[in-house]
Write a structure and sequence with these properties.
The protein is built from four helices and no strands.
């Protein structure tokens, strides 16, 4: 279970960093519905995903991991 949660957290971190640091690259190469999204919104979404990953990591390490 902890390995599965670590994988989900890693996914959130990678996606959050990619939206935060590479918004124009994401606009060019990801799904069509993201193309019309403004760059500032992608950066906010990246920060939001990083915050979710941090919260999940703290929860997993404190309550599930022992």
């Amino acid at each position: 279970m902890k390995g599965f949660m670590d994988a989900i957290i890693l996914l959130f971190v990678i996606r959050g960093i990619s939206y935060l640091l590479f918004p124009q690259w994401i606009q060019r190469f990801v799904a069509e519905n993201i193309i019309s999204t403004p760059i500032n919104r992608l950066k906010v979404f990246g920060i939001f995903q990083l915050a979710i990953a941090l919260i999940i990591y703290i929860y997993v390490s404190k309550y599930v991991g022992g």
